[in-house]
Amino acid sequence: MSLIFTRRAIMLGAGAMLTGCDRIARNDMVRDALFNAENFHKWAQRTLMARDALAREFSPDHISPIFRSNGTNNPNTAEYKALWRSGFVDWRLEVTGLVDRPLSLSLAQLRGLPHREQITRHDCVEGWSAIGKWRGVPLKLLLDAARMKDRARYIVFHCADTMGDGHPYYESIDLVDAFHPQSILAFALNDQPLRVANGAPLRLRVERQLGYKHAKYLMKIEAVDNLAGIGSGKGGYWEDRAGYDWYAGI
Ligand SMILES: Nc1nc2c(c(=O)[nH]1)N[C@H]1C(S)=C(S)[C@@H](COP(=O)(O)O)O[C@H]1N2
Ligand SMILES: [Mo]
């Protein structure tokens, strides 16, 4: 949202009140769209800081001795257990949706692609942080290989773990984050293959965002033009159920 648009929208609200018609000003949706913290934060981050700025990276001596697990620590479904038992040789990452060339990639294929390594801090809304060294494939590389269509706007991540309500975890990000150089699909943490507790065999790292955006246990990534058809339309498991902000920039 540009500053000009914000000003115009506020003037529109004021004008409506002056003419005695305060229907627009009282309309909760309009007020929320203008003034809620999430929109302001999003606007501030987009305008005041370049969204492609890098998240801070740390030196190896800052790595946390233990990178704890949060949320699901083992999907424990029959399908996942079978994949885990055979060392994930039968696991595939599907790249689908608005792409000209859908991909189905094995872990060996992903490991064979160019990597990025980054030591970053993970911040969970539940009040803990940890610094870890991640290694993975830049998301951009896969989206380019799949030849994403021009009308794609978001990337949705579908996970293997079914949550308490029986629905698998899911998340989504926009293309600014998808193409960000630190957005990687990580298969290693602290020079070890990713543990089950941290999302084996593959999880998203989207370093400019809060912990819940970093989808673990990836099965499928999907390019879409809008989020209306994903869950109840707010773009993520916790966004749909607990009102977490979709844009969780830090
Ligand atoms: N599939 C899946 N991804 C998930 C979660 C989850 O429960 N399932 N929890 C999220 C939350 S809230 C956090 S803080 C991080 C935790 O990652 P970690 O277990 O590696 O610490 O994963 C995120 N990604
Ligand atoms: Mo979290």
UniProtKB/TrEMBL annotation:
CDD domains to which the protein is assigned, alphabetical: bact_SO_family_Moco
Organism the protein comes from: Sphingobium vermicomposti
SUPFAM superfamilies recorded: Oxidoreductase molybdopterin-binding domain
Domain of life according to the entry: Bacteria
Protein name according to UniProt: DMSO/TMAO reductase YedYZ molybdopterin-dependent catalytic subunit
UniProt-listed Gene3D superfamilies: Oxidoreductase, molybdopterin-binding domain (3.90.420.10)
Oxidoreductase molybdopterin-binding domain residues: 90-225
